[in-house]
Design a protein that fits this description.
This protein is α+β, with helices and mostly antiparallel strands. The chain folds into 2 domains: 113 residues, no CATH class; 175 residues, Alpha-D-Glucose-1,6-Bisphosphate, Chain A, domain 4 (2-Layer Sandwich), CATH 3.30.530.20. 53% of the residues lie in helices and 14% in strands. It contains 8 helices and 6 strands, in the order H-H-E-H-H-E-E-E-E-E-H-H-H-H. The chain has a 6-stranded antiparallel β-sheet with strand order 1-6-5-4-3-2, with helices on one face. The longest helix has 35 residues.
Amino acid sequence: MKNHAWRRASVLRLLAAGSVPFMLVAVYLLAVRPSQLRRGATTVEFAGPMPGDELMPHATFLATRAITVDAKPEAIWPWLAQMGYRRAGFYGYDLIENIGSPAGIRSASTIVPALQHPQPGDLFPISAVAHLIFGPVETGRYLVWRSEAEPADGVFTWELDPIDATHTRLISRIRLRYHWKNPGKLALDLFTEFADPVAVPAILRGIRDRVEGRPIRSLGSEAVEILIWVAVLANLCTALLGIFRWRHWLRAWGIACVCAGMLLLVLYARPALWMGALLALAATMVLIRIRHLDLRITER
């Protein structure tokens, strides 16, 4: 009888723990992903053609994002031309994207003349271990990064579309074909699926801020935001572990669900840093409280 009860409780805990990542992915796919794939882009921009589309007509992952910059295309172009790892950086999350770069951890805050003339076929490094190549380039209008594979399985386009005499739309499009039969490459594809909606809007904002002369985000601010992500993820993992190890496993399941929602919030909604830190701290305190209650029961 005891064995039956133990097996039943174990199955319930396993189902509870498995439901959390299932709900996390479901909410991402149904509620978060659609808006993130077209963040900042108009309906026309999202549906319209862009240079590079012809290199990979059918994509598993297709996202178009945009931002308005208070400048003419010729003022924005140099920042696009010099972008890249071991180049001028990506202007987004430097602490992640530029780590180990010989050019330094900080993305450039000025124009680098030596990096202003990308040519189709030139190597384009995206990290210490990976690279793309430049595809079609038209100075002042667009540039394309693409994979070396034929046909291409990854295409990244940056286009400048003037909307009046002093404003330009900076539009980004990414097209990926998932490698379903290659586990190593598929893991990178899935990482891109979840990370791209965080990284690209940050790049767009970084370019806009540099062109318009706005204050450039500090590394300290980046570090705090990244620490919030890590804290929320750590809380989620702790709560999932608590489902199996704690007597109050239903409470652990509840806080795991809350932490999963927090993770989506801090990654894709970008609340103020103080708010993100407060949420992470509150979840931590609740977990400590649950664990404390659990230990008191065990001691009895």
